[in-house]
Amino acid sequence: MTLKLFRSTGYSSILVPGETRVAMHPGWLVMAISLWVGLACNVVLWRALASGSAAATGRALILALLLAAMVGILLSLLGWRRTLKSCASLLVLLAAVAACAWWLQPPPADGGLWDRGSPVLPAGASLVRWQLLALLAALALPPMLWLRLVQVRRLPGSQQLGFNASGAVIGCVVLAASGYLLARILA
């Protein structure tokens, strides 16, 4: 005969680490996706690193910070429990498509992409070329698969609202600072 110390109820799970300790905080997910878009999907940064110019790399890193701040603001505002993963996946996919459009354009003679307009696909570009598909898969699939597998911590409504507001404010401060730095360097 064994001694039962606890009755089997639905509350027995409070004795083991649950979702609140194992799952990732939404802030870490927002920061990871923002950094992926700002660094991995930034064609200007990769071309500046390939050119070896320190000045171009500095401008590209400030641009990466600007892009990451914009994505962080969007994900902070749209980062509720049911919308966070789908919005993050959509932003990663859009950033990967934009990066593919930039890669299709030939690099300018001066080595920078600062005076160009928005990237558009050239008329002769084929979207079925294997290089374009490989680049799109390399930029979009790893974070989208990671988003599918990661567990995100559920926060109470007021705590989630506070996180979203503070994330948007921090993103706005970083966006303003990086925009100011970029404007000073380009002027």
Report a brief summary of the structure:
By secondary structure, the protein is mainly alpha-helical.
Distance from first to last alpha carbon: 83 Å
SSE series: HHHHHHH
- Name the average pLDDT: 82
Strand content: under 5%
Number of helices: 7
Total domains = 1
User: Regions with pLDDT < 50 over 5+ consecutive residues?
Assistant: none
Helix content: 55-70%
Verbal overview:
26% of the residues are buried. This protein starts with 18 loop residues before the first helix and ends with a helix. It has one domain. It has 187 residues and is an all-alpha fold. The chain is globular. The chain contains seven helices and no strands. The protein has helices at 19-22, 26-40, 43-51, 54-78, 84-104, 130-149, 157-186. The longest helix has 30 residues, at 157-186. The model has no long low-confidence stretch (mean pLDDT 82).
Question: What is the element layout, followed by pairings?
Answer:
Blueprint: H1 19-22, H2 26-40, H3 43-51, H4 54-78, H5 84-104, H6 130-149, H7 157-186
Helix pairs in contact: 2-4, 2-5, 3-4, 4-7, 5-6
